[in-house]
């Protein structure tokens, strides 16, 4: 069965694993998903990740991060640009998520980056998702 929005599937898997208090979650790999995972790791929203190669497309194993009380560190994940409705923003309108507490993942001509990095470099692009 083909999947129409693999990035939304990845975000849903992370959201569901966090609610179930799982230590890790496996996601089918792609370059875009790997880029999003690297941003999540760099910004400390997840503990770690590994890329596992198999005979097909590979698997990204994401190790989730929790607060001391056992609550999932990621409060919300939202897919902004979907296959049916792409959302592009110019450099002047790059969104701030929760007044700068969260982050938006922007796909620019120089690759995936956070909203603050896009603002610093003066780039716009496709708003992939928001995390807070």
Structure explained in plain terms:
The protein is an alpha+beta fold and 132 residues long. The longest helix has 14 residues, at 6-19. It is globular and about 40 Å long. Helix content is 25%, strand content 30%. It has helices at 6-19, 31-42, 115-121; strands at 24-28, 46-52, 59-64, 77-79, 88-89, 103-108, 111-114, 125-131. Strands 4, 5, 6, 7 and 8 form a five-stranded antiparallel β-sheet that branches. Strands 1-3-2 form a three-stranded antiparallel β-sheet, covered by helices on one side. The protein has two domains: 6-64, Ribosomal Protein S8, Chain: A, domain 1 (2-Layer Sandwich); 77-131, Dna Ligase, domain 1 (2-Layer Sandwich).
- Report the helical percentage: 25-40%
H/E topology pattern: HEHEEEEEEHE
Biggest β-sheet strands, sense, barrel: 5 strands, antiparallel
Which fold name corresponds to the CATH topology of the largest domain? Ribosomal Protein S8, Chain: A, domain 1
Point out poorly predicted stretches. none
- State the secondary-structure class: alpha+beta
What distance separates the N and C termini?
31 Å
Give the overall pLDDT as a whole number. Answer: 95
Task: Give the CATH class of the largest domain.
Answer: Alpha Beta
Please count the helical segments.
3
Q: Sum up the overall morphology in one term.
A: globular
User: Any idea what the radius of gyration is?
Assistant: 15 Å
Say how many strands there are. Answer: 8
In the CATH hierarchy, the architecture of the largest domain is: 2-Layer Sandwich
Number of domains: 2
Q: Which range does the strand content fall in?
A: 25-35%
């Amino acid at each position: 069965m083909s999947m129409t929005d693999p990035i939304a599937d990845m975000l849903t898997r992370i959201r569901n694993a966090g609610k179930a208090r799982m230590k890790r979650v496996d996601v089918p790999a792609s370059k875009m998903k790997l880029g999003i995972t690297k941003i999540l790791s760099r910004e400390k929203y997840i503990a770690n990740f590994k890329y596992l190669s198999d005979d097909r497309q590979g698997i990204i194993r994401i190790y989730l991060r929790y607060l001391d009380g056992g609550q999932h560190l990621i409060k919300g994940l939202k897919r902004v640009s979907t296959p049916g409705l792409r959302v592009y923003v110019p450099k002047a309108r790059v969104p701030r998520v929760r007044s700068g507490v969260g982050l938006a993942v922007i796909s620019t001509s120089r690759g995936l980056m956070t909203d603050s990095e896009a603002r610093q470099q003066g780039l716009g692009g496709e708003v992939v998702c928001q995390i807070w």
